[in-house]
Amino acid sequence: MTDTPEKWNAATKAVHAGTRRSQYGEVSEAIFLTQGFVYDSAEHAEARFVEAGPDEFIYARYGNPTVAMFEDRIAALEGAEDAFATASGMAAVSGALTSMLKAGDHVVSSRALFGSCLYVLEEILTRYGVEVTFVDGPDLDQWKAAIRPDTVAVFFESVSNPTLTVVDIAGVSALAHAHGALVVVDNVFATPVYSRAIEQGADVVIYSATKHIDGQGRALGGVILGTRDFIRGTVEPYMKHTGGSMSPFTAWVMLKGLETMNLRVRAQTASAQTLAERLEGHPMLSRVIYPGLPSHAQHDLVTRQTGAGGTVLALEVRGGKRASYAFLNSIKVGVISNNLGDAKTILTPPAFTTHQRLPQDQKDALGISEGLVRVSVGLEDTGDLIADFEQALQVASEMEQAPAE
Ligand SMILES: *Cc1c(COP(=O)(O)O)cnc(C)c1O
């Protein structure tokens, strides 16, 4: 394995860190599409099962050279001691939490969560005797009141989906650490490019690699980052025996994704910032939510925490479902779907898709209205996006003014 000098900047690490070259000296990372590994002798087989060295593998569910390259590269980028790659973002969220918790433990979680994260915390962990208290993520007083001496972990999305509220990583970490609780951060919307979560106090950082790491809509994947003790001592035994490991082919896709992630995410963020600035105040929009806008409720925190607004914005179209659907159906540069972080601009109506399952009172509490449209800004020309959004809003406006049939 090549060494990664600590002093390298993130963009350099994203291209070179963790590379393991075979005896052929290939330039591009090899895909080791093998589930197993051959031992020189029965004695070697026995020795490897007693203790596998850092570059010795047993079975792909436990580890694989291509997957290890991805784990080492993302760990170097994030400034984490180690990483475990998983089959999806949800395998990472559920694996991180389930591997560390047991019946009787107490967890405090932010309420504004991706639908499947909420399901894991509210429906699954509680079924196994874990007590979960939900709080309003941006409100530090609620965290302070909810975290108890027996709280084992706190969980939150640093930027919530889809309304982009921001949780203060340093603030919540200080409260949690005062009671010895682990801080687990789902950092998808912050992206590995802008993340400083570990230096800000997070103990465990999770990404859905499906999003910005692949960034081109090809593969599901995830990763759990943390201390070597936590990753190898707690996460690995759980993941390797329950089966949520990443496949070598996926790891190769993600390695290639990491090479260009820095360029993609910075370009998409710049475009999202320009689009948000252009659309703010549009007569057909009651709200433009974007962490990079000074009007965002936690803009100061965003400046401190990541320094960038990210690749996603949320628009609230006036006129509810009818108008927002007219807007969505008129978009030509971009697609209606539900992924994010992709090279293609993706628009999602959360109230009717990703967050459909939420009861109305929770949708209201989280601000997930019928007119809300989540926009993941892609790599198209920014001018083309602005022109397209403006014409689609014009269609929605004409629809609004016409009498309903
Ligand atoms: C997409 C997403 C996940 C789940 O990731 P998958 O790769 O789809 O399993 C978890 N958390 C957040 C915040 C996400 O956006």
Helix proportion range: 40-55%
Estimated share of beta-strand residues: 5-15%
Give average pLDDT, whole number.
95
Question: What is the assigned CATH homologous superfamily of the largest domain?
Answer: Type I PLP-dependent aspartate aminotransferase-like (Major domain)
The helix count comes to 14
Describe the main β-sheet briefly. Answer: 7 strands, mixed
Bound molecules: pyridoxal-5'-phosphate
- DSSP, total strands: 12
The backbone outline, from C-alpha atoms, is globular
Indicate how many domains the architecture comprises.
2
Q: What is CATH's topology name of the largest domain?
A: Aspartate Aminotransferase, domain 2
Content-based structural category: alpha/beta
Spans of at least 5 consecutive residues whose pLDDT stays below 50 are: none
| Strand order of the biggest β-sheet | 1-7-6-5-4-2-3
Distance between the termini: 67 Å
| H and E string | HHHEHEHEHEHEHEEHHEHEHEEHEH
Radius of gyration: 22 Å
Please describe what this structure looks like:
This protein is of the alpha/beta class and 405 residues long. The chain has two domains: 253 residues, Type I PLP-dependent aspartate aminotransferase-like (Major domain) (Aspartate Aminotransferase, domain 2); 140 residues, Aspartate Aminotransferase, domain 1. Helix content is 41%, strand content 14%. The chain is built from 14 helices and twelve strands. The strands form two sheets. Strands 1-7-6-5-4-2-3 form a seven-stranded mixed sheet, sandwiched between helices. The protein has a five-stranded mixed sheet with strand order 8-9-12-11-10. Helix 5 links the parallel strand 2 and strand 3. Helix 1 runs antiparallel to helix 10, helix 3 packs parallel to helix 10 and helix 12 packs across helix 14. The structure holds pyridoxal-5'-phosphate (PLP).
